[in-house]
Amino acid sequence: MRHIPLLAFCALTACMPAPSAQVSKSYSEDSTSGIAFAAMQDFEAAPRPYQSRPNAELARDFLDLEFRMESGRANPNFSRFEGPITVKLQGAVPATAPAEMARVLSRLRNEAGLNVNFGQTGVSASVTVEFLPRAEMRRIVPMAACFTVPRVQSWAEYKAERAGPRVDWTSVTQRDHVAIFIPSDAAPQEVRDCLNEETAQSMGPLNDLYRLTDSIFNDDNFNSVLTSFDMLMLKLHYAPELRSGMNEAEAAKYVPALLARYNPAGNFAGGEYKDIAPRVWIAEVERAFGPAGNNSQRLAAAHRMLTIAMAQGWHDGRLGFSYFAVGRSLATVQPAAAVNALVEAGRIYRSLPNAQVHVAHVDMQLAAIALAAGQDAQAIAFADRAIPVVKQAENASLLATLMLIKAEALANTGRASEATALRLDSLGYARYGFGSESQVRARMSEIASIGARGARG
Questions:
Q1: Residue 186: partners with Cβ closer than 8 Å, 6 or more residues away
Q2: Rounded to whole angstroms, what are the CA distances from 13 to 80, 326, 332?
Q3: Across the beta sheet with 2-3, what order do the strands follow?
Q4: How far apart are CA 309 and CA 31, in angstroms?
Q5: 56-266 belongs to which homologous superfamily?
Q6: Given CB 3.0 to 4.6 Å as the disulfide criterion, which of 226, 331, 386, 404 pairs with 447?
Q7: What is the value of pTM for the model shown?
Q8: 264-302: per-residue pLDDT in tens?
Q9: Does domain 2-43+277-456 have CATH number 1.25.40.10?
Q10: Domain residues of the chain, as ranges?
């Protein structure tokens, strides 16, 4: 299940207050009416550099992804599709979805070796992706951006079965039909992100682990598209030595040899045992980043995240995420303390392999704080450091946000023509990342109000 995206709410410095009527430097419907909105800009497929971890560590990750559920329950059975896998889209399919789905399937074939294709029209598919209005989905599953369930092929069927054992993943020993549900009115990037994660989980591992900085199977939502780690997990999932119905002990006998074969770069000594995050910490994550409550409540939850992380003795991405949560919530009330927390989050993420996009999220927060404080050169430096990483990570909403922050800083330093050009360059990514023109204008206005605050000193 993919949770509400990190940038979907309170993304900039923990819910900056709405611009007041006195803020002149904002982009209302009227003031942006002269801007010609560019066509949506997405990303071309590009190789993703990957630093392998020791195979002994990857083996534990694989087993925890396969034999645990997000709820914390054990999953007694290894399950997968046996034979060719087919996919179909139904419902109010967004215009961008077929091409995005085709790209995911192509990557699954080429990088993970899966036998997967679109199914024939009118024929039942292995995986049914149904699009329906977000409001309808949230009436049933309020915290999910999108999710996948077994043994059903439609929303109507899911609603009829959702309280019963038929849609319980822990009872599945072999997959025959799986349904994925995605909001039809989501921004194109959210559609793409859901297609990446939910398609992978419909066919492969079911769990998400907060300790994984190199995976989309992580509810921190920093990674937007399937990574090299994810493709390796899917390749293992369909290795011929494994079979549906195995328990953990049976599967574990084969995993070391499979990793040695599929990931020779990981054949070196080392690796650290990392436990699964306790439910009490995960509950605080949901409070710190969820839409309910106010910023003081989110800040209190973030502090509890950090306290638990320290008590657990973590030094990995979960500690970094806890500092990030604290810094994000402190940004508007105690900017100096926020910077300290965010700098510590960045230090931790830089010590970890494959966590560059996490550092970029930290840099975006630091850039916004610097812009609000009138430190325009520093805001530009943070944005410049993050932008190449974010392009590689294919995160259009984060990229557009960074470009707009930099544009405001450029404008504040008298470089108006550069600022205008950069705003225009950001629009295609913003439309892909945020959706409608009104949402793009709202983000532009939000960032402009921060820039105006910094310009006033």
A1: 94, 134, 145, 194, 435
A2: 42, 11, 6
A3: 2-3, 144-150, 178-183, 127-132, 85-91, 116-118
A4: 46
A5: Collagenase (Catalytic Domain) (3.40.390.10)
A6: 404
A7: 0.90
A8: 999 999 888 889 999 999 999 999 998 888 999 999 999
A9: yes
A10: 2-43+277-456, 56-266
